[in-house]
Amino acid sequence: MKYAPRSRRWLSGVALFFAAVAHVSCRMPGSQQHHALGSLEGQRTPTSVGCGCCRGSSEVASVVAVDQNPSQHAEPKTPAAFKGDPYLLDTDPVTGAKLPAIDTLVIIEHEGRELRFASDKNVASFRADPSKYLAAVDEKLIAQQLPFYPLKTCAVSGEKLGDMGKPVDLIYRNRVVRLCCASCKPEFEKDVARHVAKLDAAVVEVQAKMYPGKRCVVSGEEFGGDMGDPIDHVIGNRMVRLCCSGCVKKLRKDPLKYLSMLETRKSPDDKPDDSESKPHKHGNH
Predict the structure, then answer these.
(1) Taking the domains of the chain in order of start, what are their residue ranges?
(2) At CB < 8 A and 24+ separation, what contacts does 250-254 make?
(3) pTM as predicted
(4) Residue from 233, 272, 222 nearest 255 by CA
């Protein structure tokens, strides 16, 4: 067996080291996949340092074996933090009267949840004794959301609801979450994002099959085409299909307006009526 001169072998070793570093740290432009460092044993002497994307070329160095199956190494996707749903009742938490126009409301945040009032006076009354009013608000939210609730099992333990006695209906930032027992509440609060993400996925799985309409309720734009794939946004345990992410803000500002539009649709082929917004382009958001 012939060996390369010592100086050549030393330089090859240095090149091998930097090639490995390049593959570990480099990132394909526009891609979420990082290169994984493969085994260096048995690889032949490098002829180049750095991978193809580092050099702006499709050529990939032969030094490191790049795993072509990123699913084996990819980090599990972390659910986004649940910021809560907007206030989904059409009545003032203090007086119980119908709320006025959306632009005149007084909107506050109380312990992480949004509440909407008709006046500053009502806000002051609420702040003086929140517990006096929240029980009635929670009761109304539960009645509103239960008909759309998708899970028959506890959102935390997976136990069948009812097997542990009457289910616990938890209101977390205006969202109804059903638990098999009170003991699951602390576990839910330890990892809210994961449990709500599971609930959202169940909402989409159930409601997507019967979703009414092929157009965005916010923009009136037909799904697909130039707008790309639609976005399924969950609010109050209801799925709202939007043409693009730019419509989420408008939906959350006036959710009852757009949820009512869904209720007037009878089939997936229904076209938007005159009350729905005109088609738009992404730049209009």
Answers:
(1) 1-75, 102-208, 211-284
(2) 250/218, 251/217, 251/218, 252/86, 253/86, 253/102, 254/102
(3) 0.68
(4) 233
